[in-house]
Design goal:
single chain; about 325 residues; alpha/beta; D-Maltodextrin-Binding Protein, domain 2; Double Stranded RNA Binding Domain; five-stranded mixed beta sheet; 13 strands; about 30% helix; globular
């Protein structure tokens, strides 16, 4: 249980139950959110309720074979709907854009805290960049998005499935099962596992991240106004603007768990920049790359330009199921 350090104002104490996965990263992320909320609200106590999700149970096969990353949110959303927890903390990239596994119409993303570094990170004992990997190197990742971009840059690489928690994936790399693995830098940092001797962040021009990567989504019941107000204390508007644009790209393309789509929006000096990479269904080249920019006050113009460019380059056709 995470508790409030500051003295509680008499008569203002309150406890919220936070649904969290049992993985190291989920517990740490949820704990960070709990601490932030308790600092923002005197008298608030946040207690973790550990929930085992289908995504946690399936450790030996790619998730896109069973329903995608929504398998990490399904049971948490069900717990919220039953009233067994007040809110949940998701990695935003795990929240389905299309084909949700739960009817979440009674739920809402109440807040998005400031985003962590959205880049991917190369974990390797033999190279500091994708370009420096040995010919035919075995790279561990179950992400079709990563596979499509990696093979576009290095067709010689051998992409092998890799599942498990962040610490498990790093252990498998150290055991020599792979010459490199690719992880989300945000998760590595939040888990306190970043090791500069082993890890190198990958530039956006080489590997663009998934929509929502590095961001957290705080979800609660739509009719719980008290919880909504508590969560909004740590909401970051700019992060939401960016993630909403990225998810709009996935929605426009009809992306599902078999769709290698990368999208990243960033804000710099009052201007929003949106970049998108779309690979071929199944995680193979060729890939389509588009980008757009607009003043922050007119962010939708950048989104409009990018969606039009994707349509002109027939990006949706890359994502279609091949004819039998």
């Amino acid at each position: 249980m995470v508790t409030q350090n500051a003295p509680q104002a008499q008569g203002s104490s309150r406890k919220l139950l936070l649904g969290a996965r049992g993985s190291l990263l989920s517990r740490l992320q949820s704990g960070m959110v709990a601490e932030s909320l308790q600092k923002a609200h005197a008298g608030l106590t946040v207690e973790l309720k550990i929930v085992t999700t289908t995504g946690d149970r399936i450790q030996d096969k790619p998730l896109h074979e069973f329903g995608g990353k929504g398998l990490f949110t399904k049971e948490l959303e069900q717990v919220l709907l039953k009233g067994e927890a007040d809110f949940a903390v998701h990695s935003y990239k795990d929240v389905p854009v299309t084909m949700p596994l739960v009817d979440a119409s009674a739920l809402v993303i109440a807040a998005t805290p400031p985003r962590e570094d959205p880049r991917d990170v190369l974990v390797s004992t033999v190279a500091k960049s994708i370009a420096d990997l040995p010919q035919g190197a075995v790279v561990g990742t179950s992400s079709l998005r990563r596979a499509a971009q990696l093979l576009d840059a290095r067709p010689d690489l051998k992409i092998e499935p890799l599942r498990g928690n962040v610490d498990t994936r790093i252990r498998k790399l150290k055991e020599g099962q792979y010459q490199a693995v690719i992880l989300a830098l945000a998760g590595v940092k939040r888990a306190g596992l970043f090791d500069a001797t082993l890890m190198t962040p990958i530039g956006m021009d080489v590997l663009l991240p998934a929509a929502g990567q590095g961001a957290l989504a705080l979800q609660c019941r739509r009719d719980s106004s008290d919880t909504l107000n508590v969560l909004r204390a740590i909401h970051d508007h700019n992060t939401t603007v960016c993630v909403d644009m990225e998810r709009a790209v996935v929605q426009h393309l009809g992306g599902d768990c078999h769709s290698p789509i990368a999208a990243l929006a960033t804000i710099d000096r009052g201007e929003v920049h949106l970049r998108v990479v779309v690979g071929t269904r199944g995680g193979k080249p060729p890939v389509v790359r588009v980008s757009g920019a607009a003043p922050l006050a007119h962010a939708n113009n950048a989104l409009r330009d990018v969606l039009q460019a994707l349509d002109k380059q027939h990006a949706r056709k890359l994502l279609e199921v091949p004819a039998a």
